[in-house]
Design brief:
This protein has 387 residues and is of the alpha/beta class. It has two domains: 34-149 and 289-370, Rossmann fold; 152-281, Response regulator (Rossmann fold), CATH 3.40.50. It has twelve helices and 15 strands. α3 runs parallel beside α4, α5 (151-164) runs parallel beside α6 and α11 (310-329) packs across α12. The termini are far apart.
Length: 387
């Protein structure tokens, strides 16, 4: 009988210990109230500079928010996944994040994978906020919003800036016809330029299979008499074009969009080849604006990188936008279903305003942000704001 009492006492002690452990581990607190945010983007491969910037900045924002008390009693947890800028891998990453308990998605970073997972998130009614997926289709459904400008908006804004500031009158274009980002910007730029009386004297296309030698395109544009070359492309190809233009002795102006952010680092010791290049981007790491400077400082201290790119700034704003939307929707319980959360956030996004690193932003049901683009010029290896 004594042995029976000892066994019963041990059992009760074990139950009490487990209960205490559950309480200490947040059975009604931290674990239950940890809201998981998934991130998808290229962390390896040719566009890893974009994806790693996004993942780093998102983690930085999550840590800052948690250190300041979280959101409505919830803590945030960020889980990044690598898609290598490949659609199939983005789909796998999305499914993995769902299995990990993610309730919303930041991503994807680049447009083609973003287009691929967009229908999946719509089918699941999963809220998606892409920091930098700029193709129109990235936010084609009502569960998706974006931080960056869309491709059409970038093309229109670039043409308007060139016209309004008398930057050039005869324009050559080099664009990637195999890429939705590049071709999307070019098409809107071409239409807007025509309406403004800007003359496109030569349009030269390349594809992902022919993106190393641009000598023919540069010669065609030179022969056409262009006084500016518009580059609605990413920084890798832009660095090659600038290098080859320099080596050929081609003296002309260059103008691009946010995809050129990163070209200085890509050129390395040849960064002087980018001198004078103009681009539209909502953030630069040498900005003296208070929010931008604070973000740059925090990012630099955490990652030993004093030049976070535009994509990182977009991601940082994305996390803080989610915070504001969660507060607006009064979401307090992280055990909420992803679909229920999505419905609340969709409504909240059209009712909030965010003063972020990349500017003042508001959204409507289309998922598109309204904010002002900023024109920059590369001077002495750094970005300088243009009037």
């Amino acid at each position: 009988m004594k042995n029976g009492k000892k066994i019963l006492a041990a059992a009760l002690s074990l139950v009490m210990g487990l209960s205490l452990c559950a309480c200490n581990n947040g059975g009604s607190g931290s674990d239950k109230n940890e809201l998981i945010i998934g991130g998808i983007g290229p962390m390896t491969g040719p566009t890893a500079q974009y994806g790693n910037g996004v993942m780093n900045a998102a983690q930085l924002a999550v840590e800052e928010i948690n250190a300041a008390g979280g959101v409505n009693g919830m803590t945030l947890k960020f889980i990044p996944q690598d898609d290598e800028n490949v659609s199939e891998k983005a789909e796998n990453a999305y499914n993995s994040l769902k299995d990990s308990g993610a309730k919303l998605i930041i991503g994807t970073v680049t447009s083609t994978p973003c287009k691929a997972i967009s229908p999946l998130t719509k089918n699941d009614n999963m809220f998606m906020l892409t920091p930098s997926g700029s193709a129109v289709e990235c936010v084609q459904f009502d569960n998706a919003f974006r931080i960056c400008f869309s491709d059409p908006n970038q093309g229109i804004a670039a043409a308007q800036y060139i016209k309004n500031n008398n930057v050039a009158s005869k324009i050559g274009v080099i664009y990637d016809s195999s890429d939705v980002y590049s071709s999307g910007i070019y098409e809107k730029f071409r239409t807007e330029a025509a309406s403004l009386g800007l003359e496109i004297v030569s349009s030269q296309a390349f594809t992902s299979d022919s993106n190393k030698d641009f000598s023919v395109q540069l010669q065609q544009i030179k022969s056409a008499g262009a006084d500016l070359i518009f580059l609605p492309i990413y920084y890798q190809e832009a660095a090659l074009i600038l290098t080859q233009a320099h080596n050929a002795g081609l003296e002309t102006k260059f103008f691009g969009c946010d995809g050129l952010d990163g070209v200085i680092k890509q050129l390395g010791n040849d960064a002087a080849y980018a001198e004078g290049v103009m681009l539209l981007t909502a953030y630069t790491s040498d900005s003296k604006e208070e929010k931008s400077a604070a973000f740059t400082k925090a990012y630099s201290e955490k990652y030993n990188d004093s030049n976070p790119n535009q994509f990182a700034a977009d991601a940082y704003d994305a996390v803080y936008t989610i915070k504001v939307a969660l507060e607006k929707a009064d979401v307090k319980d992280a055990s909420i279903s992803a679909s229920e959360l999505c419905d609340l956030l969709k409504k909240a996004m059209t009712e909030i305003e965010v003063d972020g690193v990349t500017g003042h932003m508001v959204w409507d049901e289309s998922g598109e942000p309204t904010k002002d683009p900023k024109a920059m010029q590369i001077v002495d290896g750094a970005y300088t704001a243009l009037d």
